[in-house]
Design a protein that fits this description.
- The protein is mainly alpha-helical.
- It has 3 domains: about 30 residues; about 50 residues; about 55 residues.
- Helix content is about 50%, strand content about 5%.
- The chain has 8 helices and 3 strands.
- The chain has a 3-stranded antiparallel beta sheet with strand order 1-3-2.
- A hairpin with a 5-residue loop joins strand 2 and strand 3.
- It starts with 6 loop residues before the first helix and ends with a helix.
Length: about 190
């Protein structure tokens, strides 16, 4: 394509070229660190600083600093800290508030060799687990055992009212192997 054949192409290229030039100029200015212009103010009102401290974070900056999503910031952090609402509607989180929030939720490191137990803690009474194992070894299926537990009103490990066949199976798996000799009639 020859530039004389498509005059609009030259116009578009010229516009893009001007954008690139402006972008390069801004980049050069940032790299040179131009001295700030001095603005007159009554003595005692302005203080010269070498580097300004950050006063507040935007929600996005706070999310990046904490390594969480913005929706987590909105759901968990914003309701529990004082925020600044700008006249144009942006919500800012003061640095002091963010540091206070982090200080309140700071946990000490674990001791060397100290580990928590994997998975959920067992919270079913031993008699319920043994009853499920007994019914299963007698040949009842997961659905029958779950139905009987629901009828008897036995709460689940986390206080729920509904037992499911998969829940009964999970209890059996967590409680250890069921002797296969007792279940041989089921497999045949």
């Amino acid at each position: 394509m020859h530039h004389r054949c498509y005059p609009t192409h030259r116009l578009l290229y010229a516009a893009m070229s001007a954008k690139r030039k402006k972008r390069r100029e801004r980049k050069r200015l940032r790299q040179r660190r131009v001295e700030p212009k001095l603005i007159w103010a009554p003595p005692g009102e302005l203080h010269e600083v070498v580097e300004a401290e950050r006063l507040a974070y935007s929600r996005r900056q706070a999310a990046e600093a904490l390594g969480v999503s913005i929706s987590t910031i909105d759901r968990r952090l914003v309701p529990s800290v004082s925020t600044v609402k700008t006249p144009w509607g942006q919500r800012l989180i003061p640095v002091a508030e963010l540091e206070r929030f982090l200080g309140e939720h700071l946990e000490p490191p674990r001791e060397t060799g100290e580990r928590g137990a994997p998975g959920r803690p067992p919270s079913l009474p031993r008699r319920v687990v043994e009853g499920i194992r007994l019914e299963y070894t007698r040949g009842r299926g997961f659905a029958d055992i779950a139905r009987q537990l629901n009828e008897d009103g036995v709460p689940t490990a986390h206080g729920g009212r509904q037992w499911w066949p998969s829940t009964v199976r999970a209890v059996l798996v967590r409680s250890g192997p069921v002797p296969s000799a007792e279940r041989s009639d089921r497999a045949a």
